[in-house]
Write a structure and sequence with these properties.
By secondary structure, this protein is of the alpha+beta class. It has a 5-stranded mixed beta sheet with strand order 2-4-5-7-6. Helix 7 runs antiparallel to helix 8 and helix 18 crosses helix 20. About 70% of the residues lie in helices and about 5% in strands. Among the domains are: about 130 residues, Serine Threonine Protein Phosphatase 5, Tetratricopeptide repeat; about 110 residues, Helix Hairpins, CATH 1.10.287; about 150 residues, Histidine kinase-like ATPase, C-terminal domain (Heat Shock Protein 90). The chain is rod-shaped and about 195 Å long. The N terminus is likely disordered. It is an enzyme of class 2 (transferase). Keywords: Kinase, Membrane, Phosphoprotein, Transferase, Transmembrane, Transmembrane helix, Two-component regulatory system. Pfam families: HATPase_c, HisKA.
Amino acid sequence: MNNQSGLLLPSLQCRIILMFLVLIACFAGCRKSEKTGHDVQLKARIDSLDRTSRITGSRKAIASLDSFMATLPRKNIHDSILYFKFMKVLSHRDSTMNAAAFAYTDSLLGLFASAHAREENPIDYSKALLLKGDDLLKQKEYYQAYRNYYKGKSFLLSRGEICECARYSSRIANISFKEENYYQAIEYWKHELEELAQCREPENFQLEFIEKQGSMRNVGIAYMLINEPGKALDYFNQADRFITRNAARFPKEQNFIRFARIVILRNKAEAYALKGDNRTAERLIKKCLEHDPSIDWSIDVERESRQILAQIYIDSKEYDKAQAQLDSLRKLPGAAGNPAANSLYRTMQASISYGRGDFKEAGKLLLANVEAERNGKLKRNAQSKNNVGHLLQQVQREHEIELAAQKDEREGLILRFSVLLTFAMAVIVYLIWRNTRKTIHNLRAVTKLNGVITQSNIALQDTVNALEESEVEKEKMLRIVAHDLRNPIAAMISGADVLFWDQPPSEEQAMLVNAIQQSGQLAFGLIGQILQAGPDKKKISKSEEDLAEIVQSCIDMLSYKGKEKRQTIHYDYEKAMVPVDREKIWRVFSNLLSNAVKFSPQESAINVNLKKDSNLTLLSVQDHGIGIPDDLKGHIFLSTNDARRVGTAGEQSFGIGLSICKQIVEAHGGKIWFESVSGIGTTFFVELPD
């Protein structure tokens, strides 16, 4: 009953756990289905509004999306993220809604107030930080902007989201470039390239093509501005090869790809011009100015190409060609209202005038240009008093201080935990030491008690053997006496028959004779019963017993005696259920094992083997002791003291145990025999039927 209960309980627990897991899976499936349904509906609505808002305006699109959100049941954080991100886009398109755009960014960041929300949605959180940094830059809060960028990138790095870090590196590089900190810009664009290499979105044209070739081109431009045209050309060629390798991956974007080739061509021309190779530079620039009807022409590309070509002609003293390019530049749309372009044109015109010998005109243009640049610089300094490198270093130092404080806090916690753990370990060690002492003390007491019990069992076994031998002797004596009494009693009965042969007895005499005859017959019958009865057969009471367990109990009892002689008992067995008289068969096994211990030397091995074979079970007890001499082998199973010998440690022997073993085994219908070589060892075998 207990075993069944033990099996039912784990089974019930397994069913409960399985049901619990199924419920969790169903709940997660429902949540996932709900989330997927919301995402599909909301994204479809946002895509539709994105197209129509350019016609109807941002305010109507915002009102429409608000109405749609009110119809969504059980809105989750993913719905809110999509909502605020698109609201940010819509309000950003309308220049009158800058304040609303900033507010939507703050609302988007507010969704990630908890650490759980940030951990569950790391990409969305990083993009929210990026948008917040962009807003702060527009508000000229440069320190807070860089702090936001640094915080976002550190968070992504801690989560292993290397690809997303590229957006932050690109932002910092662009700002550094605008602030003319070109070395820092190069460093962050190289970071961006390394981070983009970790992206695994093969269909993402922005990440896989635009950003990668753009970063390579930007590094080249920065190298040109620090007067390293050789390195610049390396990056431009690298970008050109990248475009060639990946153009076929994006068949729908061929217009942009052709345009990117023209931009790279112009950059390479500028680098060759900086190296002094004006002929190569001129050839490349003229290719840029060849109109390609398959792409949308860019005024900016034409303007920059003609500027480079004009500078090439100035450097090569071809002033008429330079003037022609400069006149073309002034006719391009948007040239008149661009201060930077006007400053460049004045510088070029001054160089052309100087080359033609008109020094007065050249001087006037240069002075006007110097004054314009001075005023522009003062204006820029008034509007922007920031130092990108300094701000980034400050943000990094603060971040390092925060990390150091967190590290100190962790180390303090670890120290407290270590002290507590040390104390706990000391307590545990003390308890183990105390329990070990108690265990050793108890083990010694148990060992001593076991020795006493074993000695008592051995003495008791010898006593039982002696009593059995005495009983056998008495049984033999009784049978001899009974046998010898048969003749006198038979003679007494016969004599009673012939007592009154010649004359009939009187009534009283007849009664006496009959009494004598009846008593004789009764005594004769009792003598017959004594002579027919066996000494052990009437005492066998069989039941199904585990022989392996019986043998083990004998080994357990005698192990102490074996340890005294530093002997080792090896027991190899198979399961064997056999009908036997447990008490008597135990005496057989105990006798055999006791003899093995008794007649084996110090530090020897005793091998016990129990093997089940069809309908027979065989026990063998092998020792490596003194063996049995040939002259005693015939007396081993006799009930005499002729085979009695002293053990290897002086143990006393009565020489009658094996005769009793033989009687008990044969009473079970089994066989017992031995194999022995004097001085080498002895093996006893007991075979019992099922």
